[in-house]
Each structure stands twice: as C-alpha cells, then as structure tokens.
Amino acid sequence: MLEDLKVEEIEYKLAxxxxxxxxxxxxxxxEEMVKVAxxxxxxxxxxxxxxxxxxxxxxxxxxxxxxxxxxxxxxxxMSEAIRRKLMEAKRPPTSIEQWYxxxxxxxxxxxxxxxxxxxxxxxxx
Length: 125
Description:
Blueprint: H1 2-6, H2 15-41, H3 49-60, H4 68-77, H5 80-87, H6 96-124
C-alpha cells in the first residue's frame, strides 16, 4: 500500500479515508500486539491486588487472549507469595475470574493481618 502511494497509483481525496485504510490494513493486529506486550510487562509491585486486577483487566481487553493465556500472564505478574499460596491451595483457581477473586481476597486478608500486627506491636511499647 505504501509503495502504491509513493508512485501515486492510489489517490485518496480525504485524509480520513486514507487513515481508515491504514487502520483496516494494520490496526487490528498492531493493537493486539501492543496489548499483549502491556500484559507481559505488568507486575503487581507494591500495589494492592485490586489495583493490579483493574489494570490487568483493562490491558487484557482487546489483547485477543483467551483460555489459559490470561491466567498465565496474571500469575506471572502477581506477587510471588500470593501466587504460591493460591497454587498450593486445596482447590486452586482455574478461570481468570477465579484468580482475580481469590487473589483479591488473599491480598485483602494479608493487608488486614499486617495492620493488626502493627496495631498490636504499637500497644506493646
């Protein structure tokens, strides 16, 4: 298409028509590749699981990922301690929605536990 433009074999009277043609030719796959790359670089870090899940959901939309792939990317990006606990659970989550739910619950309980420990340590002083 670009070669045709260089030799002026294709004429676009409107810039919008040209841009629509570019998006039709190259847009879909490119958007998916960008989303996949974003998913692969996402990590929970110091954020809450709720924040991580929200960002992961946003990035997963339009990635073309289905089945086990989103689960694998989610597990890779989450906190190692939470991932290990969920994988070693009696009934580990199987779907991405179960991973979101169980990871959120585990992270929330862990944060509450830490706050309680800090509060109790403060009373001991």
